[in-house]
Amino acid sequence: MNLLVVDDFVEIRQMLTSMFSGMFDKTYEADDGNLAVELYKKYNPDWVLMDIKMDVMDGITATKLIKEFDQNAKVIIVTLYKDEETNTEAKKAGAFGLVSKDDLSKIGDMIFESIL
Hints:
- By secondary structure, the chain is an alpha/beta fold.
- 47% of the residues lie in helices and 20% in strands.
- It has five helices and five strands; from the N terminus they run βαβαβαβαβα.
- A five-stranded parallel β-sheet has the order 2-1-3-4-5, with helices on both faces.
- Helix 1 links the parallel strand 1 (2-6) and strand 2 (26-30).
- Helix 2 packs parallel to helix 3 and helix 3 (59-69) runs parallel beside helix 4 (84-93).
- It is globular.
């Protein structure tokens, strides 16, 4: 399995890559939604961990574009914004789920449960 990690902070990308390196054969990184869409189209990763607030293109827009390209894409929104509006926007965009950056352990649970 392959993973695409999208966040505008390199430290967050590196942390997520490190956390889940044992679950994935290959990990790709992007610092904005535009690059995320390009990398998704090029490498077709099994999972995408997507931040919301980024320059150039935000994560909700990038998720919509990825889902338009591949309706089976599995995008998990990873964010500090836990309000109902953000959750609704993520669902409308086609996200598989939404996880708070305060509780990253839920990411592994989501991926593992979907495999079973």
